[in-house]
Protein: Antibiotic biosynthesis monooxygenase
Amino acid sequence: MEQIFIDRFIVPQSAKAEFTERMQINRDFIKSQPGFITDDAYERTDADGNFICITIAVWASENALSNAKALVQAEYQKQGFNLPAMLERLNIKMDRGQYNRLDTNK
Structure:
């Protein structure tokens, strides 16, 4: 069963450039991983001027998503990148979840 991985980020405008650069690096990397199907990104600005970004990646299976998560972590280590540290330094809030497609045709 396909797995959908959704991230929602609340990013201060002052951190938007660094955040979007890092997001593109991550999106480019996952596209080459086995079991990747597609991804999308959506944006808006909230009433406080924050950049709100939602990314959605679709994976062929639970196993493909689990493997991709491990590969992403290994790539972060190779790059010397620490996601939690970046989020804290830039005051970015993240809500992350793994979803299944809802069958509304019942």
Q: What stands out?
A: The chain has three helices and four strands. The radius of gyration is 15 Å. The beta strands are 3-11, 36-45, 51-59, 93-99. The chain has one domain: 3-94.
